[in-house]
Design a protein that fits this description.
The chain has no helices and seven strands. By secondary structure, it is mainly β.
Length: 93
């Protein structure tokens, strides 16, 4: 067992939160996986795809900017293999 690699899938709370206009979303993969990280508005409409690629096991910090969106609550969702998790973030301008 390689102790330097994560043992579980996980999605962390974005930081900073609330944010304007940039934030970082961290996640970890215990195995190589196709990764889909998307942001949705409160109506469930897709706002942006942050990550859509195959990634090796490891820890990732994805920074992105939401310039042209209005203040409010957004949700970000990580899909990797069978893992699925959604968290809430707040854009405050």
């Amino acid at each position: 067992v390689d102790l330097s690699l994560p043992q579980t899938f996980s999605l962390s709370q974005n930081f900073p939160n609330p944010f304007n206009p940039s934030t970082v979303i961290s996640f970890q993969l215990p195995v190589s996986s196709a990764v889909l990280l998307k942001v949705y508005d409160v109506l469930g409409d897709e706002v942006v795809t942050v990550v859509d690629e195959y990634k090796p096991a490891g820890i990732y910090n994805e920074q992105f900017t939401m310039n042209n969106l209005s203040s409010g609550i957004y949700f970000y969702q990580l899909k990797a293999g069978d893992y699925l998790e959604t968290k809430k973030m707040i854009l405050m301008k």
